[in-house]
Design goal:
142 residues, Immunoglobulin-like, 4-stranded mixed β-sheet, 4-stranded antiparallel β-sheet
Length: 142
C-alpha cells in the first residue's frame, strides 16, 4: 500500500479552480467581449478607432459624456448550430461595452463616426483650450 501525502492547504483551492474554469468571461467565453481600441490625436481632433468586423453599425451606440467615450453594441449569431458540434469556438459573440477617458477636453456634440471595412473611426473635435488668467492681488498699504 502506497502512502499519499496529505496537503490540507490545497484542497480549498480545487473548488475555486472549478468555479473559475466554468465562468465564461474568464475563459474567453461567449458571453461578450471588449473590443480593442486605438486612441490618438492630431492638431484639432481626438480620433478613436476600433475593429468591429461582422457587426452591423446600426446596432452600435456611441456616446460622449464628460470627456468619456462609450461604445456599446451587440454581435448576433446568424446560424443555428448546436454547441456540442464545435471543435473550436473562438469567434466572439454577444454584447460588448467599452468606455475610455479621452486625453483632453472635447466637443462631444460635434463628433462624427464612420464605419469602413469593419473599422469604426470616431473623430471628436478638441475644445478650445482655456488659457489660465492671471489675477493680480491688490493690497492696501497703511
Amino acid at each position: 500500500m502506497a502512502l499519499i501525502k496529505w496537503t490540507p492547504f490545497l484542497e480549498p483551492f480545487e473548488g475555486m479552480e472549478k468555479i473559475l474554469s466554468d465562468w465564461p468571461a474568464l475563459r474567453g467565453g461567449q458571453s461578450g467581449f471588449t473590443p480593442a481600441i486605438d486612441v490618438y490625436e492630431d492638431k484639432d481632433n481626438v480620433i478613436v478607432e476600433t475593429q468591429l468586423a461582422g457587426i452591423d453599425p446600426e446596432k452600435v451606440n456611441v456616446s460622449i459624456e464628460n470627456d468619456v467615450l462609450s461604445i456599446k453594441g451587440e454581435s448576433e449569431k446568424k446560424s443555428e448550430v448546436e454547441d456540442e458540434n464545435y471543435y473550436r469556438k473562438e469567434i466572439r459573440r454577444g454584447s460588448f461595452y467599452r468606455s475610455v477617458a479621452l486625453p483632453t477636453h472635447v466637443l462631444g456634440d460635434e463628433a462624427s463616426a464612420d464605419a469602413v471595412d469593419g473599422v469604426l473611426k470616431i473623430t471628436i473635435p478638441k475644445s478650445a483650450e482655456v488659457k489660465p488668467k492671471r489675477i493680480e492681488i491688490k493690497t492696501a498699504k497703511k
